[in-house]
């Protein structure tokens, strides 16, 4: 077995039973997420669902949102907005880094004069 695969958060390493145990949920909960197309695990050669760590994180977040009283549609929207927010934060950090690098290369400022 290639143990490096276990470092990949998208590697489908967990059966439905293992995933349910790790999340503290019943197996039908995970199957319902699959049937709704929200968390779609890969299938083994025998047709069994196999979940990745990434998918377990999504399923866990969905469970938290359901526990807070959200329905499936609102939980999906919240997940989408959380993902967009994280992507925006990464982009802001990247742009700030780029600006800092430009400032180091051109200490006189963007206009080219030393008065700013």
UniProtKB/TrEMBL annotation:
It holds the Pfam family MerR_1. SMART domains: HTH_MERR (SM00422). It comes from the Bacteria. Residues 13-81 form the HTH merR-type domain. Transmembrane segments: none annotated. One of its GO terms (molecular function) is DNA binding. Residues 71-105 form a coiled coil. Keywords: Coiled coil, DNA-binding. This is Putative transcriptional regulator. It comes from Saccharomonospora cyanea NA-134.
